[in-house]
User: Fold this.
Amino acid sequence: MRKFVPDNVVPERLRKELLDLERRLDNVLVQVEGHIPTGDEEIDRDFRAQLQARFADLARTRRTKAEEAAAWAVNGGLGGDLELLNKSSNLAALDEELQRKLFDAFNLELRYSGDTDEVLIRVTLGNCPE
Assistant:
């Protein structure tokens, strides 16, 4: 079975999810290998079909998680905007064009409430599972 878990690159939660998916896929294969026919072709066919569907579902989920892990391995899960993130520690000091790029890259939203003098800040990082 191919392993998709890069060492020391992705968040621990994502590593655990990938390892769990690998374990579950292995368990499905063990069930297939250890299957003893019941003698009832319809029941055996349903059993094989359910195992195949379950394996396919787990494999698709693993592929999605592996792609997510690859994004983290390449750039920390920030969609290639690491340099922009490093420049963003003081928004007010940035020129307007760079501020706009930052807002767009991270789906940054600032909402000011005049009643309470509070600012709600919302940031969305693509591929960031934590």
Remarks:
- The radius of gyration is 23 Å.
- Confidence is low (pLDDT under 50) at residues 1-8, 77-85.
